[in-house]
Amino acid sequence: MAKELKDLTKSDENYSQWYNELVVKAGLAENSAVRGCMVIKPYGYAIWEKMQAALDRMFKDTGHQNAYFPLFIPKSFFSKEAHHVEGFAKECAVVTHYRLKNDPHGKGVVVDPDAKLEEELIVRPTSETIIWNTYKNWIQSYRDLPILCNQWANVVRWEMRTRLFLRTAEFLWQEGHTAHATREEAIEEAEKMIHVYQKFAEEWMSLPVVVGHKSPNERFAGAEDTLTIEALMQDGKALQSGTSHFLGQNFAKAFDVQYVNKEGKLEYVWATSWGVSTRLMGALIMAHSDNNGLVLPPKLAPIQVVMVPIYKGEDQLTEIRARFEAIAAQLREKGISVKIDDRDNVRSGFKFAEYELKGVPVRLAMGPRDMENGTIELARRDTLEKETVSQEGLVERIEGLMTEIQENIFKKALAFRESMITKVDTWEEFKRVLDEKGGFILAHWDGTVETEVAIKDATKATIRCIPVDAPDEEGVCVFSGKPSHRRVLFARSY
Amino acid sequence: MAKELKDLTKSDENYSQWYNELVVKAGLAENSAVRGCMVIKPYGYAIWEKMQAALDRMFKDTGHQNAYFPLFIPKSFFSKEAHHVEGFAKECAVVTHYRLKNDPHGKGVVVDPDAKLEEELIVRPTSETIIWNTYKNWIQSYRDLPILCNQWANVVRWEMRTRLFLRTAEFLWQEGHTAHATREEAIEEAEKMIHVYQKFAEEWMSLPVVVGHKSPNERFAGAEDTLTIEALMQDGKALQSGTSHFLGQNFAKAFDVQYVNKEGKLEYVWATSWGVSTRLMGALIMAHSDNNGLVLPPKLAPIQVVMVPIYKGEDQLTEIRARFEAIAAQLREKGISVKIDDRDNVRSGFKFAEYELKGVPVRLAMGPRDMENGTIELARRDTLEKETVSQEGLVERIEGLMTEIQENIFKKALAFRESMITKVDTWEEFKRVLDEKGGFILAHWDGTVETEVAIKDATKATIRCIPVDAPDEEGVCVFSGKPSHRRVLFARSY
């Protein structure tokens, strides 16, 4: 570990390598033996569990219930919505057989050719099709609507280039799938959920996001409108962190889901879907961490306070540990998670570095001198500030710090993000800002797919979104010179 | 729904059909369009979530952490432990391709033959192999041990005959996988976890279970010892409800996982694994429910108290609803979940039947007369008793009832189970009891696989377990007449 700590690549030397190393060294995740699939290690999973718990509470508070739908989707279902299958066909894992048998020519086992499935099954890359095929039986009349379901599940998309958390063949996520009687209600739901994601990103992840609509070209396959939250990473690249789709009647028509309205007439049902995934872990790591390791907002930190005794000999340790335990008990009563690290086989300097790597928000250290003086050393991970404080009032101080650190991390990320939004009006400026500074670019766009694609081909920048709060503003497209009525948000992205 | 309620098959007419109908009609689960895979509906999933939360807390309290490992297992890994592959090969879903493409001969999509995987992937039926391949990199010295991980996940076993919750191709479960320095510590862990399951079954599910060892023939594929909890259903058949395996060094040897012990010597690591699944839902339903529907122990009931207003006209409803809401607020403060059902399109009798079907532990009904008298009608689901009680002290009374009902359901199940354990000493008696009464049979067995198989072939009864608390007792095998030193537990089972 000591070696590992020192070896963390500097983020300004190689951001991508810094990220990969940090994920592994902080014990968050690692690559598995299966191409593109990751192992989420206990420390990483503990953060994901906190994300899940907070999101799940927010979903339930907005009237949603959890359910569970099959992992497998019959190939024929998958093909029913034309845009949908087009969007996902190239990245599907396909189950074709259901049995192994002993290899007649040698040792080991082979796939049993006699056990071929009549219809191949797709491992779900997303569940609209299997869910709408199910909803068909749940919905007869307007009284059965709305249906507000969410599912926590694993999904598989056979990505060619994968990165831990950011893009993996298998990932964990939640997918909400709702059914409504009217277009307006479905649109309202899609908007409500993107704002739930925004609230979660800002209040739990300390991550400011821009809410907006995707351009038609970047919409979810099968959606009429895709709302997104876009975050900015410290290297100036954007990261799409959650999406909420208004699906119109596309899936209802593909699966023939109609209901009898109050007037006794048959109508197709309106749909939304929305999801966030373990990709949020990548956003959390990249948005806040530094060359010493992770910086975790207290609300998502598995360990919020770590205590390290500074001692010589068993007697001193016993005394300090007792004092720590008394403080820990008080902190735990306030709902603050605490770890006392009294390992005797590593030095305290090593422990300090380890908890910095792991992003523990507050570190307390206490030695014999502190015991005499009634003091304690308190270090903040977010600012790296250290000070010696009185043990008196310590619990209240730490309780306050939890909020203060949470907000400070947000403010820092927000200040960075604001400093990285540039309004540009010419194509030369567009390219220059993108190359020299990066970040978000607010520019006029003529609204055509051709221009969008041309800009992407020329610069690798895409339209991240058309912000919901973008004011009307007359201008000309930065690329084509054609008229435009509002600025959209461009960036290079993950 | 009214039709559905009346149509529930009587359990004594056709137990199996009663079960299937109950699962569907109570809104717990249904078959999906994918062979053998179920949809867990919101009401069923809400019970599963409560099970998960309680178990997860118990796992964490015993020092375990959650993690997540890949859905897919390379075929070669799967084959490394000989007994393991033998046990699971016949029921594996196999991913062979990773892309679809447009069918050149017609419409729709087909599997792209050019996108064949170099090595086929097994959809995990259980994760020992991929996890031990991972642990290899986590374990170097005794300081890295123990590893105490749990995973909440979906697994797939291609079963030919499936039944909702009891046996499905895909199911949800948790699987604990621990690594230890010594044989003794691993055995202790396996025992600790089977007792965690026992405690959960008894205290949360109100389900008495027998704890014991599986006979060698019934062990998990790759285990040296399998501990089990066995429950009895109301039709007299046993249901294996959870297992905990001492895996010896089998997987450590298969994946070459060694550690340096305190003396500096290399040793193979010792392993356990343990799991419970959505099968527990089947146990919960079959153990307690009746011809009116589910009977849920309060600790697992998504709705613990339902309130039904009895009224004529909007004014009465407004008044009653206000009173209900005041009571509901007090109950919620005590952590009791409450639903007020003021639907105006169904009669209250229909509502009563619906909440009986759904197993809501306590039902409150209030009409104008009750409003005048300060009374309320209180009905218990477990006993079907109804009484008119004072509104005064109602909250305390209901709080007490939650515990009382939880215990009463357990006591009833325990009394039934005890009445269904029969000691038999002759083969004729064995067959007679099995056919006429069913339940558990305590009988002597000579300890051989031959006898075990012969008994199963003759009667369909298997050795459910060798109970951990079975006293030493000399006797002769009920089948072979050979000497035996303790009785074992036989039953027909799910």
UniProtKB/TrEMBL annotation, chains A, B:
Entry's Gene Ontology molecular function annotations: ATP binding; proline-tRNA ligase activity
Source superkingdom: Bacteria
InterPro entries: aa-tRNA-synt_IIb, aa-tRNA-synth_II, aa-tRNA-synth_II/BPL/LPL, Anticodon-bd, Anticodon-bd_dom_sf, Pro-tRNA-ligase_IIa_arc-type, Pro-tRNA_ligase_II_C, Pro-tRNA_synth_II
EC numbers: 6.1.1.15
Subcellular location, record wording: Cytoplasm
CDD domains listed in its UniProt record: ProRS_anticodon_zinc (cd00862), ProRS_core_arch_euk (cd00778)
A Pfam family annotated for this UniProt entry: tRNA-synt_2b
Endoplasmic reticulum listed as a keyword: no
GO biological process: prolyl-tRNA aminoacylation
GO cellular component: aminoacyl-tRNA synthetase multienzyme complex; cytoplasm
Keywords carried by this UniProt record: Aminoacyl-tRNA synthetase, ATP-binding, Cytoplasm, Ligase, Nucleotide-binding, Protein biosynthesis
PROSITE patterns hit by this protein: AA_TRNA_LIGASE_II
Annotated HAMAP family: Pro_tRNA_synth_type3
Domains: entry comment: Consists of three domains: the N-terminal catalytic domain, the anticodon-binding domain and the C-terminal extension.
Subunit structure comment from the entry: Homodimer.
NCBIfam families reported in the protein's UniProt record: proS_fam_I (TIGR00408)
Physiological role: Catalyzes the attachment of proline to tRNA(Pro) in a two-step reaction: proline is first activated by ATP to form Pro-AMP and then transferred to the acceptor end of tRNA(Pro).
Protein name: Proline--tRNA ligase
Gene responsible for this protein: proS
